[in-house]
Amino acid sequence: MKKGCFLITMLSMLLLLFSCSKEMSDEGEGPGSPANPCDYAPYTTGSSFSYINVNRSKDTVSYTLTVSGDTTINGNVYKKIGNDSVFTCSGCENGIYTQVASILTFQGYQADDLELTYLKDDAPAGTSWQDTISVTNNGVTSTGILEFTVLRKGFTKTVNGKDFADVIAVQMDAIAIILDNPVPVGTISTSYYGKGVGLIEADQLEDTTRLTAYAIQP
User: What is the DSSP string of 133-193?
Assistant: First the structure.
């Protein structure tokens, strides 16, 4: 049971990382038009995205993430996105969006280079897919599953007084594997991606992250 409890903690850490390093995208056509490959994340060097995170106590944290260029991981090219305290890599191919994030040692546990598929822009509402993650401690490995589900597509959402069109809502749920049995942990977040802008809002149990400004370079 100790491994299961840690896995829930690790998933919470993963949520924190996503809260501080969300995905972005470039300009696209209006609502109802067909999506171009990777239309929701064509990162360009120098583009920046500012967010505000508000928790239940109304404490706020503002930060800006900047695209700093390319990097290659396991033969795949990713865009480097972050600031002085957060760094992640994001890639896209044929409308499938992935993120590589590293979580360093925590209480003796370590998880490295987690490659997660956070969005499939051509998947219809109701579609789900899963990523398996592993954490290790003194040679002992624990396994968990992150399940992503497209809740809704092609709608308009207002964030900080601005309307964003052609939005895709994706829910991320956690499943712990305990004694070889899947045990649902619960919903970690619901993220909203606007076409031409990227992540515009992420709702978690304890806080909400919203886009406040962005500048996309050609």
Answer: EEEEETTEEEEEEEEEEEEEEEEEEEETTEEEEEEEEEEEEEEEEETTEEEEEEEEEEEEE
Tokens 């040679």 belong to 139
Q: What is the DSSP letter of 24?
A: B
Contact by Cβ (8 Å): 192, 208: no
Amino acid at 78: Y
Per-residue pLDDT of the chain (218 residues; tens, 9 = 90+): 444 444 444 444 444 444 333 333 333 333 333 344 678 886 789 999 999 999 999 999 999 999 998 888 878 888 888 888 777 788 888 899 998 865 544 445 455 567 889 999 999 999 999 998 876 767 777 778 889 999 999 999 999 999 999 999 999 998 878 788 888 888 989 999 999 888 999 999 889 999 999 999 98
Say how far apart CA 104 and CA 120 lie, in whole Å.
27
Q: CA 165 to CA 192: how far, in whole Å? A: 11
Q: Which tokens in the block code for residue 55?
A: 């928790």
Query: Residue 52 CA to chain centroid, in angstroms?
Result: 16
The 3-state DSSP class for residue 132 equals strand
Among candidates 99, 118, 210, which has minimal Cα distance to 164?
210
* Whole-prediction pTM: 0.80
- Maximum distance among all alpha carbons in the chain? 52
Residues 6 or more apart in contact with residue 139 via CB below 8 angstroms:
none
**Which tokens go with 17?**
């990382």
Residue 30 tokens read as 């209006």
